[in-house]
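User: Just a sanity check before I run the rest of the batch. Below are the structure tokens for the first item. I only need the designed sequence back.
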């Protein structure tokens, strides 16, 4: 019985000490921050730090390219050209959300078409055809200017 009484007394002592420390913390004055008088001044101008760092982004491009060669008259049909595009672009990030992009893109296109018709002059039904082959090389130097609209701070 005395062992139980000792345990109860120890528990009461621990609770009293912890409640006393909580009561002592409540009696302390909170640490207030004193605002500067200029903080509430509506005419003050806030100077934002504009830290700009020049950077360059580069990209390599490889992909499928398709173009259409149109004829000016109805003698020849339009021809689709298929090929590949390879190149590199560089984006220079400038101040005030502007950027400038340039680079070099090479395009190789190939197209083949056969045009058939029956000869009206020959006594027999004879089919004639013309074969068109096109191999096109393009070198493109893009120059683009971008403006990025910031939607939220990062």
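Assistant: Here's the designed sequence for the first item:
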């Amino acid at each position: 019985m005395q062992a139980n009484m000792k345990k109860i007394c120890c528990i009461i002592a621990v609770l009293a000490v912890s409640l006393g420390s909580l009561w002592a913390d409540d009696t302390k004055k909170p640490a207030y921050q004193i605002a500067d008088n200029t903080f509430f001044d509506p005419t003050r101008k806030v100077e934002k730090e504009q830290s700009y760092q020049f950077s360059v982004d580069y990209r390599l491009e490889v992909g499928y390219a398709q173009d259409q060669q149109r004829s000016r008259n109805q003698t020849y049909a339009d021809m689709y050209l298929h090929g590949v595009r390879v190149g590199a672009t560089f984006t220079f990030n400038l101040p005030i959300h502007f950027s400038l992009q340039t680079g070099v893109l090479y395009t190789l296109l190939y197209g083949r078409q056969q045009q058939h018709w029956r000869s009206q002059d020959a006594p027999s039904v004879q089919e004639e055809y013309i074969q068109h082959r096109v191999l096109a090389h393009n070198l493109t130097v893009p120059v683009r200017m971008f403006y990025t609209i910031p939607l939220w701070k990062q």
